[in-house]
Amino acid sequence: MLLRRYRRGRLRAREFPAKWIPILERNFLHYHFLPEGDLRELLGHIQVFTAEKRFFGGKDFEVTDEMKVTVAAYACLLLLHRETNYFPGMQTIVLYPTEYLAPFRERDPTGVIIEGYQVRSGEAWQRGPVVLSWEAVRRDSRRRRCRHVVIHEFAHQLDYESGYAEGTPAIAGRISQEEWARVMRAEYQRLHRAALLGRATLLDRYGIQSPTEFFAVVVEAFFMCPRALASDHPQLYGALKTFFRQDPARDWLPIPGQASDRSTSKRLGK
Ligand SMILES: [Zn+2]
């Protein structure tokens, strides 16, 4: 434990590889608007993450530094300002070149088992790997919308750390369980209602699948469109701000020429 802490301290203090900076400039939107202190902290986390986690390419896909650094940057955004153990339940990231077909088996509300194949851009396994489509990662990394597949899957990993995935991460006294559950339940119902009425929503409607998916979707919005989330869903924003110990709507630099960070639409298979 002590040795690991020492090793991580050394990794964080190491000079950030100069050849990785253009990767961040190109693929990591937040590189341009994170405050300097946050960015410094993040660069340290990226060094630990890329040294400790194993990356594999599915179907003989060759994993490059660009892929590792891009995934690490978005995953580590979720760790800023907190004592972190770097997603301890997850050691492996598998990358596919494009979205991929995965078998699924689900029970519908009437009890009927549905089996088939589903197109996926990513998935996260409890005490297992995160699987990502590089095409989806790159797409989400180059345009400013309320979603990002890496943030989504690593939000699931945080959720798993509490021992069970129910949209309730280990919140450890930062906000009461009751308060967290009250806000999440109200917002979950609100998204359900909007979806039912066919209204446009800031949050990805994929979130109505389950409380677990809802948590992943709201974390995406928190990091990808914080100002819109703070203005449209102040209570939800407040709960996430307390949990993450970050206030991006207040602290991140405004992006020149980008008046709004709103978007609406739907993505399948997470
Ligand atoms: Zn998901």
CATH class categorisation: Alpha Beta
| Dominant shape | globular
User: Helix- and strand-based class?
Assistant: alpha/beta
Assign the CATH architecture. 3-Layer(aba) Sandwich
Number of domains: 1
The proportion of residues forming helix, as a percent range, comes to 40-55%
Distinct compounds present = zinc ion
Structure characterization notes:
It contains eleven helices and six strands. It has helices at residues 2-13, 21-27, 36-52, 65-77, 134-142, 149-160, 177-196, 211-224, 226-232, 234-244, 248-251; strands spanning 54-57, 92-96, 100-107, 113-120, 122-124, 130-133. The strands form two sheets. A four-stranded mixed β-sheet has the order 1-2-6-5. Helix 3 crosses helix 4 and helix 8 crosses helix 9 (226-232). Bound molecules: zinc ion. Residues 152, 156, 213, 216, 270 line the site of zinc ion.
Structure, briefly:
The chain is of the alpha/beta class and 270 residues long. Helices cover 47% and strands 12% of the residues. The protein has one domain (2-251): Collagenase (Catalytic Domain), CATH 3.40.390.10.
Features:
disordered C terminus; 270 residues; 12% strand; alpha/beta; single chain; binds zinc ion; Collagenase (Catalytic Domain)
